[in-house]
Amino acid sequence: MKPRPRNRYRNSLGLSTITAILIVVASLALVGLGIVVSKNRVRALGEEQRKVEAEMRLLNAEILALNNRIETMLTRDRVQPRLTSAGTLLRPITKQSILLLKPLPEQPAKAAAPAADPSVAQITSKAP
């Protein structure tokens, strides 16, 4: 009879080598996962920023439209009938209703001071 062949341990890698390989693969997987998560977070922030910018553009357009609407509502042709119907006493300005004032003549500073405050003039005249 022939002796039975024995099963030999054929794995040439030791336990420490397998452990080191597993640690390296796990750390590379974690680094890759971190990079993917980081890029997704940056992309999400970019999308949020684009949405906010689009909303700002819409709000600016709405503000401009409201300003234009206010300007068209406050034109003379629209305000005048409203003021008249409200019973205000406003009248159109004409050249005859404008008053023009003549400029005052300039007075010397010494002559203007005693006339402005007579109590100061009395005190200075009584001094020895």
The biggest sheet, with number of strands, parallel, antiparallel or mixed sense and barrel status, is: none
Percentage of residues in helical conformation? 55-70%
Structural class: mainly alpha
Number of strands: 0
The overall pLDDT, averaged over residues, is 82
Poorly predicted ranges: 124-128
Distance between the termini: 157 Å
**Overall outline:** rod-shaped
Write up this protein.
With 128 residues, this protein is mainly alpha-helical. It contains 4 helices and no strands. The protein has helices at 15-73, 76-85, 109-116, 118-126. The longest helix has 59 residues, at 15-73. Residues 109-128 are annotated as: Disordered. The chain crosses the membrane at residues 12-37.
Map the helices and strands.
Layout: H1 15-73, H2 76-85, H3 109-116, H4 118-126
